[in-house]
Amino acid sequence: MDYFEFDLKELIDLEKKLKELPLNVSADIHVEALKKAAIPLRDEMYSNTPVNEGDLREDLTIRKSKFQEANAHSAIVGFKGGTGHRAYIAKFLEFGTKKIRERRFMRSSYERTKGEVERKYVEEIQKIVDKKLNGS
């Protein structure tokens, strides 16, 4: 499974502000900002998701990762799994099989929106931090 990460130098000043907040609030801020920043990626993936194998787009979601490491925060843009969902099809369409050509709709969506997602993350985290520090 591929994971996409980005490192933002603009967050150095925000890091100082975040340290003024309780640790659990800081973590919540990161996840909230990540989820909002991921919207352009989700929308691009929605547009690029193949529909001939059932409408995977119905199962596209942004959610908090269940596996959080210390000081590492993540939100997942992906397909709902479980009974009644078609998420298992997405990996075959993305990476291909012997009989199905790879479609690269997830990776290409990420590449097209990466810059926008990074900018939006900085904007969102700044808004949320300022709101928290100003008591709003």
Radius of gyration over C-alpha positions, nearest whole angstrom: 17 Å
What would you call the structural class? Answer: mainly alpha
Series of H and E elements: HHHEEHH
Low-confidence stretches: none
Tally of strands: 2
Distance between the termini: 39 Å
Number of domains: 1
What is the count of DSSP helices, taking H or I runs of 4+ residues?
5
What summary fits the major beta sheet? 2 strands, antiparallel
Query: Could you estimate the helical fraction of the residues in percent?
Result: 40-55%
Residue share in β-strands = 5-15%
Secondary-structure map:
Blueprint: H1 11-18, H2 23-37, H3 39-48, E1 60-64, E2 75-79, H4 87-95, H5 105-133
Antiparallel strand pairs: 1-2
Features:
single chain; 136 residues; mainly alpha; two-stranded antiparallel sheet; 2 strands; elongated
Short structural description:
The protein has 136 residues and is mainly alpha-helical. Helix content is 52%, strand content 7%.
Q: What does this protein look like?
A:
- The chain is mainly α and 136 residues long.
- It has one domain (18-133).
- The chain has helices at residues 11-18, 23-37, 39-48, 87-95, 105-133; strands spanning 60-64, 75-79.
- Strands 1-2 form a two-stranded antiparallel ribbon.
- It is elongated and about 55 Å long.
